[in-house]
Amino acid sequence: MKEMERDSSLSDIERIIGYEFNDRSLLVDALTRRSFWHENRETCSGNNERMEFLGDAVLGLVIADVLYREFSDDEEGELQKKRAGLVNRAALAQLMRNLNLAPFIRMGRGDELCGCRNRDSILADTLEALVSAVFLDGGFESARKLIEKHFYPMIESCSTRDGMDDYRSLFQEQVQAELGLTPRYKVVDEWGEDHCKTFDVAVLLGDEIVGQGTGFSKREASQNAARDAMERMEAEGTLSRRKGMAET
What we know:
It is a single chain. This protein is mainly α. It has two domains: about 5-155, Ribonuclease III domain (Ribonuclease iii, N-terminal Endonuclease Domain, Chain A, Orthogonal Bundle), CATH 1.10.1520.10; about 165-245, Double Stranded RNA Binding Domain, CATH 3.30.160. The chain is built from twelve helices and three strands. The chain has helices spanning about 5-15, 25-30, 35-40, 50-70, 75-85, 90-100, 110-115, 120-140, 140-155, 165-180, 220-235, 240-245; strands spanning about 185-190, 200-205, 210-215. Strands 1-2-3 form a three-stranded antiparallel sheet, covered by helices on one side.
């Protein structure tokens, strides 16, 4: 790869992942498979095998920490299941595809001919190496921000606790069926240290706040806001009045 083309590609990757490297050689190594290194030893400084090991550990720790905070009522077994669903090979590979990072992987001619560029194992390993590169370049906090940014939609899609305490789903089903509206959630305040924050979340129907709740995670706060809205609207008969207005 020509120097100008390589710099352009690295800038594209930095834009995609949302992190600008101080030492771009770490990014290059993270994208380099051993097969490419074997074929280009004179010009290639290293490969990503050791970086996969470190990235796996950093990724596992950050995901465990986020799940511990977001799902504060889950037992150990439930947390382990959620973490396994987020950091398994298929999930990591799919995230690489979603980010369209596969074209940037440097691999040997044999791997390319065998179709390895789209293989789950290689995509997952490369993502772990990228996490490692950010960790080595910017420290744990940079790696944590990167992981939370790209994994949070997956974390939010994790199944919530079974039973009738999934107030967000219940409230959404109710107002969509009765009013044809979809609730929106908005963080109105947050306070405390980064590792121990409290969030204040409001739930809105249209532009009107119909419930509010706090929690040690956005998820917990939004669940409490939905519960507050359901209890409030039930006590005041607000939902029935809104339904009548919508039908007239």
